[in-house]
Amino acid sequence: MAARKTTPKPNVSADDLRKYYRDMLLIRRFEEKAGQLYGMGLIGGFCHLYIGQEAVVVGLEAAAEEGDKRITSYRDHGHMLACGMDPNGVMAELTGREGGYSKGKGGSMHMFSKEKHFYGGHGIVAAQVPLGAGLAFADKYQDNGRVTFTYFGDGAANQGQVYETFNMASLWKLPVVFVIENNQYAMGTAMARSTSTPDLYTRGAAFGIPGEAVDGMDVLAVKQAGDTAVKHCRAGKGPYILQINTYRYRGHSMSDPAKYRTREEVQKMREERDPIDHVRDMLLQGKHATEDDLKAIDKEIKAVVNASADFAKESPEPALDELWTDIYAEEAV
Ligand SMILES: Cc1ncc(C[n+]2csc(CCOP(=O)(O)OP(=O)(O)O)c2C)c(N)n1
Ligand SMILES: [Mg+2]
After folding, report:
1. What pTM value is reported for the model?
2. Is the CB of 125 within 6 Å of ligand 1?
């Protein structure tokens, strides 16, 4: 990975930096709490945490504008929080309660928000990629200037439907940013064992889609690359690929024994490349915040996360007759 850059880029203010810190910390603390609730048996089924990858989604949200869309895989809680969805509704959905975004019927991998233009939450690897191009097709058709961020993993990048999508997206010049979140592993398979070249950003070359590799542990690098990609899409030039190199600290899901990598590898990343510590250092070194300011933010975030856990625990389980609702789309009028 490229060396860490510690100087704020010119288009980012101290307020922006503080916002990135807050947004990344919210994801980190929320995910830690979700891990705890899972351990207590309050969350069932699959639960894929985003810890370590926070700078990816926060950096890209900083490049987005109101009305832009996002769609992603099952590792989706961070994306929801970063686009402004309510932590209470997300945590309640994780615990399968009525107050959740899908009324407790979807769980971790199946939440949506029309209001925040968040289109899920998809459990089938790469299935969201053609759907993301479809969202962008609608925007192009309506000529509304919007862009869709379509996130998928390094493992998903080897799926056939990704390339059918690349072809159509390029042919029709769809305003879609394909975001490959390269966290180095697909479940327990390291990228070097599954993938012919580490340069996933070149995978659009055959279709005339430009791309770049980005340091995903540096929120400013992500924001800058996001700006470039969005500008390209909004100018009507078609799709853009961002290969964002990042790392997940926790297992693939909560039931991962993690035998495919060493503890030392994870520890080294945490100590040397943590994306939140990076922003923290920039804030302190640039005198944009004091230790006390940061402590106050930490406290505030902890309160938000604890409140979401309380909300989730207190919300009732869905009534049985809810099984028969939300099955078919309402008839269009
Ligand atoms: C079509 C399909 N095949 C296999 C699976 C099982 N599966 C779930 S996640 C995953 C690995 C995907 O890795 P990657 O795309 O790198 O995303 P990450 O989990 O690292 O975020 C696999 C094989 C699935 N959900 N869907
Ligand atoms: Mg992966």
Report:
1. 0.96
2. yes
